[in-house]
TrEMBL record:
Its cofactor is pyridoxal 5'-phosphate. The keyword Transcription regulation does not apply. It comes from Geodermatophilus arenarius. Pfam families: Cys_Met_Meta_PP (PF01053). Keywords: Pyridoxal phosphate. InterPro entries: Cys/Met-Metab_PyrdxlP-dep_enz, PyrdxlP-dep_Trfase, PyrdxlP-dep_Trfase_major, PyrdxlP-dep_Trfase_small. This is Trans-sulfuration enzyme family protein. Belongs to the trans-sulfuration enzymes family. It comes from the Bacteria. Gene3D superfamilies: Aspartate Aminotransferase, domain 1 (3.90.1150.10), Type I PLP-dependent aspartate aminotransferase-like (Major domain) (3.40.640.10). The keyword Ligase does not apply.
Amino acid sequence: MELRAETRLAVLGRGSGAPGQPLNVPIVPASNFRAAPAGTAGREYSRDDGTPGWEAFEELIGDLEGGSAVAFSSGMAAIAAVLELLPVGARVVVPRDSYTGLRALLADGAAAGGRWAVRTVDATDPGALAAAAGDADLVWLETPSNPLLQVVDVAAVAAASGALVAVDNTFATPLLQNPLRLGADFAVHSATKAIGGHSDLLLGAVVCRRPEDRARLARRREVAGATPGALEAFLALRGARTLAVRLRQAQESAGELARRLAAHPAVERVRYPGLPGDPHAALAARQMRGPGPVLAFEVADATTADAVCAHVRVVASATSLGGVESTVERRAKLPGQEHVPAGLVRLSVGIEHVEDLWADLAAALEAAG
């Protein structure tokens, strides 16, 4: 019997399942283990051999994405590990609208003796993306993107490009989109966000389509030391257990808020692939199982957007996303976000009651006006 994703979230990553063993894989705060007898396999050092907590988390995330997972100390560590698989001088295509940490890392590498040759493109322009990907070694996609909520056709890019394809799947999560099944080579997650879901940990993961890539990434983790903490792995796995119910609530509220914001006189534009008029709605409906819990809306200018963020009381003004609490941020204030409209506010919707969220946003918009 093939179990549904909601059930797999609850039952996978439980350890051996032997009688008398804990139902949850316990925290193992150990770096060193007693050596196994010569000629036999056994765990000796956690950086090399992992911990039960990492393995339980990797089992769950790998299964949900349909590949083999490697956990890292953060989402940025996961991104860096994929890039480190490339040879010196590798050509990397990256979307203009993508995570600022990724583009900062690529810029540093390009400046430091040409570690990578980076091409930045509008990933929503199929012609420009195909031209850039023609001789690339890696095409990096982010869909939906941060913060413009752009959706890219992963299957089309994977089919047309001879390059490796990595997809940052943080916004969608494995429940709404599976890049490996669309032809990508890597699905990358900041588990700090929706997978962990409680704004209390840093963790990343890469899920690989090919076992040999999984082995290479595990080697990068071992030699670079980007290992997850025991507590962080435990918290991420515990948070993942409720991902389906959290995501269902947050996505439903996000759709309702997007509709109400689109009708508000102080809002000039709403970006959300769940709205019928959104330019990415049709592709999102084909590629995803839901538009997700994150949206963006635009007000008149930066001053107004800052005022909205300052006046919310139920929603938190904070830089991260994906938690049980809703958050807002004016993303154009950050370096490297020059392409983002000055008045754009990114809203990550949590599990609060939608009417309380709307009352808070409406009051903030009125105060900012």
